[in-house]
Sequence to fold (229 residues):
Amino acid sequence: MIAEEPTNLIDSDDLPIRVLVVDDHPIFRLGVCERIKAIGGRVALVGEASDGFAAHSSAAALRPNVILMDLLMPGISGVEATRNIKADFPEIHIIILSADDRTEDIKSAINAGASGYLLKSVTGAEMQEAIFKVVQGIPILSLDVTQGLLNSLTQPPATSSLLSRRELEILMMASVGASDKEIAKALSISKRDVESDIRTITQKLGASSRTEAITMAIRDKLIKSPKNY
Fold:
């Protein structure tokens, strides 16, 4: 049953970010839990689950702010578990944590309501950053995942001719929360080049900020909404 009032909304910097870890491999699950405990501070591990069914019941009982969800599990997949949890508890942010970097699986997870998708090779620092970003409403993809999506894109349509291919790639990565440094690394260019390109993009679109440029680009279908990647 869906609770009438969400109990896990973060209204203060003093409240912990409650994290639930879901993975069917005990050793890997233990490792992720230890990483979460090591973060400390505002991040608190509140529980763990070994499959999609247990993930839903744990979400109902523990009301975490963030769930780190495996993709391939017995019973129901991480994608299906994500869809079910988001239907009943839309305020919970779910990050898929998987060894699978196939584009179709990434798209399925995001379409199911996942706020992010990280590969299991992610570092503790990257995991921490992802947790903080999703609770702020910023979708997050690991650099390897972002690069895979970039490689899967077809040539932009004629309507996007206002912006160059690289400018569109920068906007797409910015729309999923990538920093200038992360974008520069993914595209093998300097951080200064990224900053310059973003200024050019905002000028071309007549936008006043990066956020407005992303919003306008999505509206005009120059890039897809992050939920549709």
Summary: The chain has ten helices and six strands. Confidence is low (pLDDT under 50) at residues 1-9, 154-160. Strands lie at 17-22, 43-49, 66-69, 93-98, 116-119, 140-141.
